[in-house]
């Protein structure tokens, strides 16, 4: 069937109590579900409906006409009622609602769907409920025996304003049901919500499960992260499970922990009893009742909340408490539920993924409330995705940004989010004071911190991306923060939802959401500490990169993993060095990171800054300059061999004078000679004889100093030069095999991949094609597994040439297609020692 558009009537259905049926009768339910699905789909389509979603036993369908939707529901109920379900009782509940269809990427979105689903949730098996919007657009009458009966106004569990609800009645269908499953059917004081609940269905289900199993559940998360809305929605869904009431206690207006108990008593309608502590009065009232208390905004009254929660946990049995707080309450028996910000679309996400991202859905719905004609289109979808990413998926920030759609386009909003605290200031007048602006929301949490916590929070803004505890203990100490105190202060910030802790295996790294980082950066500027902290940050990460460079000579995977984890901090370090004209630090940085940049093919800013660095470095110590020159030569190979040669010639000249100070171990001179040989052989027509002379010197020097890495690379390049100078294949093979043996006993996977590639090429030329092809394939696997781009590119070309000569054109083309995205770095068949 064709998908309807414009004003659409939606029908939502599911099997009542299906979870229990699946648990008790899994085999029988399989055949029942097949029968159910056949009835539903055929009936919907017979009446012109379009099924756009099925999940488990739930159906969602869209109709162009409301009358057809209602008749389809009636016929489906008739057929379901007369079907043979065996020993089971399968009853289906249905909700029908009409609204404007929002179509994106072949799917329906928007408030109309939420309303229809909520209407269905209020029904019982065998019952069909219809909204006022649908009743008003039904054209004509119904067949004899079918009518709509007005059930009056009811609040649905989305906590919105009351909805006028109708029941579809038919002479051959049940017409008498229990009171609707709506908010007003149970004892509660849950407040009406002015906006819809968006993007947290999984979290809501998880939270409901926790409340069923724990006496006290606290939802924690960053300010403006949607904790209150989530707890309210979970409480609404749990209404039927608490016959003695679900009671919401708003603690935000209070300023004294001693007022928490009176606030709870007031909500429960209790007065103080002379001679009896108020907490005892509350406990006695609740001790035999199955009640859910929702304690909202607890973070500034933790002592008072802990006193109430602890007393009720000790003196009642059936009371459950659901709290929202920016940090845990910290009483025995508490279960915390950290609420993350809304997922945002990845940078490379397709249109469908962007539209389905919860952060985008929230922004789109709130935007449509501000500007009714707002839609996600080809022009708006990219800037909306960018807004969501820039604002870290923080719901309050997204709502404040959406409010700007009345006067700005999404692209204009995105362009101004560098100064988000100035832009996002237009909250609603009825919002809490600390929710009216983005800055006020974060400042509320900041002001609750002790002074040392505020100081550490501000200093953490110097990090980019993530950081580990060791880095914080070095960079952030000073003044009132001792090294031993950093861990406790940092863990406290995690508890307060101001810092995110990401654990992978045994490794824990920390990060600030960019919105929080910008806030703390402003605080750091106010304290006058920013310049000092940036220098400490840069020095620390240069020293760390130097340790990575040394580690990489024996364990590339570990070293490269470390480089990648700290990539954003390394880039921030480079930018600071360049901005502050810290040439000596920048050169140390270049020498340490060159191997990583060459292997990954991602030199920042294209490397254009490198030339300026050496033009202004006369005062830099010669050893630092020489090593930086080697790295500059290596990273220049991808662009210009002439420039690379000039850097390396100067490096060799300086290192010859310094080499006597380095009697054994790794030789920077051997590294420079080897790379200079590559440049000499590759520049212009190539001086192969001169390149061999340089490479032989590198080999002999490395062997003398027991530098197996440099010796292996020199041997590989001598193997290549031997062939290019018309030398003996067996001699070249011996050099390549010796290099391979050296690298098989090290952690240098990229070097092993290069030597395997060279040896494979030689074996093919020697006529050992089977062995040669196997070596080339092993080289590609190693390069791919260890993300070594130059090796992956070069060896794929070699193997593709061989496969083409054998007629295997399809596989050859696939190999080349695999490396096509990597070709920004031009391959060289010489081994480069970064």
Salient structural properties:
single chain, 834 residues, alpha/beta, 7-stranded mixed beta sheet
Structure description:
This protein has about 850 residues and is of the alpha/beta class. The chain has 36 helices and 17 strands. The protein has a 7-stranded mixed beta sheet, with helices on both faces. A hairpin with a 2-residue loop joins strand 16 (about 500-505) and strand 17 (about 505-510). The two termini are about 60 Å apart. The model is unreliable at about 430-435 and about 825-830 (pLDDT under 50).
Summarize the structure.
The chain is built from 36 helices and 17 strands.
Q: What integer is the average pLDDT?
A: 86
Range of helix content:
40-55%
Largest beta sheet, briefly? 7 strands, mixed
Q: Tell me the span between the first and last alpha carbons.
A: 62 Å
Q: In terms of per-residue confidence, which ranges show pLDDT below 50 for 5 or more consecutive residues?
A: 429-435, 825-830
Question: How are the SSEs placed, and which strands pair?
Answer:
Elements: E1 7-15, H1 18-24, H2 26-46, E2 50-55, E3 58-63, H3 66-82, E4 92-100, E5 102-104, E6 107-109, H4 111-121, E7 128-131, H5 132-137, E8 146-154, E9 163-170, H6 201-213, E10 216-220, H7 227-237, E11 246-250, H8 260-267, H9 278-286, E12 292-296, H10 302-315, E13 320-325, E14 334-338, H11 351-356, H12 358-370, H13 381-390, H14 395-403, H15 410-415, H16 420-423, H17 438-447, H18 451-459, E15 466-467, H19 469-475, H20 483-495, E16 500-504, E17 507-511, H21 514-527, H22 530-551, H23 556-565, H24 567-579, H25 583-600, H26 609-615, H27 622-636, H28 641-658, H29 668-682, H30 688-704, H31 708-724, H32 729-744, H33 749-765, H34 769-785, H35 789-805, H36 809-819
Parallel strand pairs: 4-7, 10-13, 10-14, 11-12, 12-13
Antiparallel strand pairs: 1-3, 1-4, 2-3, 5-6, 7-9, 8-9, 15-17, 16-17
Helix pairs in contact: 1-2, 2-3, 6-7, 8-9, 9-10, 12-14, 18-20, 18-21, 19-20, 22-23, 22-24, 22-25, 24-25, 25-27, 27-28, 27-29, 28-29, 29-30, 29-31, 30-31, 31-32, 31-33, 32-33, 33-34, 33-35, 34-35, 35-36
């Amino acid at each position: 069937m064709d998908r309807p558009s414009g004003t659409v009537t939606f029908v939502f259905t599911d099997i009542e109590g299906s979870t229990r049926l699946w648990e008790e009768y899994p085999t029988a339910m399989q055949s029942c579900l097949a029968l159910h699905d056949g009835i539903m789909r055929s009936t919907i389509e017979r009446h012109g409906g379009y099924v756009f979603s099925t999940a488990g036993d739930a159906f969602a369908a869209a109709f162009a006409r409301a009358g057809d939707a209602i008749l389809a529901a009636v016929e489906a109920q008739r057929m379901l009622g007369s079907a043979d379900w065996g020993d089971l009782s399968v009853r289906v509940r249905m909700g029908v609602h009409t609204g404007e269809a929002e179509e994106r990427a072949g799917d329906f979105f928007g408030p109309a769907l939420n309303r229809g689903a909520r209407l269905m949730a209020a029904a019982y098996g065998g019952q069909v409920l219809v909204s006022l919007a649908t009743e008003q657009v039904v054209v004509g009458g119904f067949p004899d025996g079918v009518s709509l009966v007005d059930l009056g106004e009811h609040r649905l569990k989305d906590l919105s304003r009351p909805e006028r609800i109708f029941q579809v009645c038919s002479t051959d269908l049940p017409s008498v049901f229990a009171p609707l499953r709506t908010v007003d059917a149970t004892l509660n004081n849950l407040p009406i919500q002015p906006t819809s609940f968006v993007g947290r269905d999984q979290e809501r289900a998880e939270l409901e499960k926790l409340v069923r199993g724990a006496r006290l559940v606290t939802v924690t998360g960053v300010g403006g992260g949607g904790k209150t809305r989530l707890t309210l929605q979970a409480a609404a869904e749990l209404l039927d499970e608490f016959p003695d009431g679900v009671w919401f206690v708003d603690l935000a207006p209070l300023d004294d922990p001693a007022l928490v108990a009176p606030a709870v008593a007031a909500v429960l309608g209790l007065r103080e009893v002379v001679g009896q502590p108020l907490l005892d009065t509350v406990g006695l009232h609740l001790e035999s009742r199955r009640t859910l208390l929702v304690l909202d905004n607890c973070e500034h009254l933790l002592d008072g909340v802990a006193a109430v929660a602890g007393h009720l946990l000790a003196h009642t049995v059936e009371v459950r408490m659901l709290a929202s707080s920016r940090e845990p309450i910290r009483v025995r028996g508490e279960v915390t539920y950290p609420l993350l910000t809304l997922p945002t679309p990845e940078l490379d996400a397709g249109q469908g993924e962007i539209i389905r991202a919860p952060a985008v859905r929230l922004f789109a719905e709130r935007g449509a409330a501000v500007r009714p004609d707002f839609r996600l289109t080809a022009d708006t979808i990219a800037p909306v995705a960018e807004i969501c990413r820039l604002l870290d998926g923080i719901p309050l920030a997204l709502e404040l940004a959406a409010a700007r759609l009345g006067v700005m386009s999404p692209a204009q909003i995105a362009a101004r989010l560098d100064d988000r605290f100035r832009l996002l200031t237009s909250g609603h007048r009825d919002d809490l004071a600390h929710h009216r602006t983005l800055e006020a929301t974060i400042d509320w949490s900041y002001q609750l911190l002790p002074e040392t916590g505020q100081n550490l929070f501000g200093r953490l803004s110097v990090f980019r991306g993530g950081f580990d505890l060791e880095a914080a203990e070095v960079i952030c100490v000073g003044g009132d923060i001792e090294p031993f105190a950093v861990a406790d202060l940092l863990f406290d910030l995690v508890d307060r939802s101001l810092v995110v802790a990401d654990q992978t295996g045994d490794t824990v790294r920390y990060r600030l959401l960019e919105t929080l980082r910008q806030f703390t950066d402003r605080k750091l500027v106010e304290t006058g500490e920013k310049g000092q902290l940036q220098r400490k940050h840069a020095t620390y990460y240069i020293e760390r990169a130097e340790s990575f460079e040394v580690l990489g000579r024996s364990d590339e995977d570990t070293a490269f993993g470390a480089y990648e984890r700290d990539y954003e901090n390394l880039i921030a370090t480079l930018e600071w060095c360049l901005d502050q004209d810290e040439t000596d630090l920048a050169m140390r940085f270049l020498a340490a990171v060159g191997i990583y940049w060459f292997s990954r093919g991602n030199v920042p800013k294209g490397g254009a800054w490198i030339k300026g660095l050496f033009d202004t470095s006369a005062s830099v110590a010669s050893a630092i300059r020489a090593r930086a020159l080697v790295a500059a030569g290596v990273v220049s190979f991808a662009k210009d061999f002439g420039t690379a040669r000039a850097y390396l010639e100067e490096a060799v000249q300086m290192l010859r004078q310094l080499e006597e100070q380095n009697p054994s171990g790794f030789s920077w001179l051997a590294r420079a000679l080897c790379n200079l040989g590559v440049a000499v052989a590759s520049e212009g027509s190539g001086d192969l004889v001169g390149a061999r002379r340089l490479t032989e010197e590198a080999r002999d020097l490395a062997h003398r100093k027991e530098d197996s890495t440099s010796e292996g690379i020199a041997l590989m390049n001598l193997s290549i030069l031997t062939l290019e100078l018309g030398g003996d294949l067996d001699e070249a093979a011996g050099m390549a095999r010796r290099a391979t043996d050296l690298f098989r006993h090290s952690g240098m996977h990229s070097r092993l991949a290069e030597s395997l590639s060279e040896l494979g090429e030689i074996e093919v030329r020697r006529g050992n094609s089977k062995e040669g092809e196997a070596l080339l394939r092993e080289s590609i696997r190693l390069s791919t597994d260890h993300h070594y781009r130059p090796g992956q590119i070069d060896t794929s070309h070699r193997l593709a040439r061989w496969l083409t000569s054998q007629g295997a054109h399809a596989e050859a083309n696939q190999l080349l297609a695999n490396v096509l995205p990597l070709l920004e770095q031009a391959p060289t068949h010489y081994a480069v020692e970064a």
